[in-house]
């Protein structure tokens, strides 16, 4: 038996330019993704044929630790299971082991490698990234599970099969193998260039409801508004992620799907305007009086439903987080980061 620990960071899209729908059901996308320090933690154990192990795992408040027994009978092939631990007050989502993107990632990698060993991969995921938020939590868990399975199976972490598996799982997964800040095209899975990461404090604010990514794209198609070529030229010329303009053409469709998003924008504007200019003067100064315009330095995360706000200091981030929680939102102070999905040192 072998256990390793991994981190799976969240992301935001500093720039998300959705283009035309392709015959495969996916849209052409030009995006600049930026990793956050906020991350899920994954513990991954490989149990081989003939072994019987008893793992001590986190459970719930009533029973903080529980024993979990795993046996691998001969001829059973690969099996994968997961224990999801919801942290940070995130409402637990009902995800079967079969549908869990991290479990899927392990199975896809085994298939692409032609690996047919009798073995069990057990995952414990400590969830700090809320799902259906546009923060890519599930995709990042999948990327970390690929890195973890590769380490447990002695596969070179730079082997192309890992990138191939990531692309098969979903559009966002490939980014988390690179992390930091990067320009991606295609379905949002082809790396074009890397930038120096941003490093400021960020607050994530999420209303109670999530948004389905597929539904956000379908709503976009009803009245598409495309980014212009001048904007794309800026992305290709930039070397530092701080040069990237904040832009997301899924913001308007997401607001149509979820009116609570306009309330979040209003909350951010009012909080930073109403005598709290020191909370985030950048947002306050640029907010103007027009309530239909988003305050500067704040943008929808991917397809939503979370919004991120760039703050000038740790104090400003904590003040905004506290105000957002008081207003009934899920909120979390974090920062931009250069991390990626990775194994932690033993
Ligand atoms: C909104 C973003 O998070 C921005 O980074 C991504 O584009 C979404 O990436 P993701 O969650 O990994 O998406 P996937 O799980 O691959 O796809 C979910 C659904 O979103 C839609 N989808 C996704 C990516 C893309 N380039 N075009 C699409 O139309 C498709 O309907 C797809 O069936
Ligand atoms: N390990 C996982 N963590 C979270 N969600 C998962 C996981 N595995 C599968 N899912 C499913 O994926 C859906 C999207 O979750 P995710 O956290 O990736 O949302 P998202 O951030 O909106 O996605 P994205 O930004 O990639 O579009 C969830 O509704 C959930 O059913």
TrEMBL record:
Superkingdom of origin organism: Bacteria
Active-site positions on this chain: 11, 172
Catalytic activity: 4-CDP-2-C-methyl-D-erythritol + ATP = 4-CDP-2-C-methyl-D-erythritol 2-phosphate + ADP + H(+)
Residues reported to bind ATP: 130-140
A molecular function GO annotation: 4-(cytidine 5'-diphospho)-2-C-methyl-D-erythritol kinase activity
GO BP field: isopentenyl diphosphate biosynthetic process, methylerythritol 4-phosphate pathway; terpenoid biosynthetic process
Pfam families in the record: GHMP_kinases_N
UniProt keyword Secreted, yes or no: no
Keywords for the protein's UniProt record, in alphabetical order: ATP-binding, Isoprene biosynthesis, Kinase, Nucleotide-binding, Transferase
EC id: 2.7.1.148
HAMAP family linked to this entry: IspE
Name of the protein described by the UniProt record: 4-diphosphocytidyl-2-C-methyl-D-erythritol kinase
Lineage: Bacteria, Bacillati, Actinomycetota, Coriobacteriia, Eggerthellales
Gene assigned in the entry: ispE
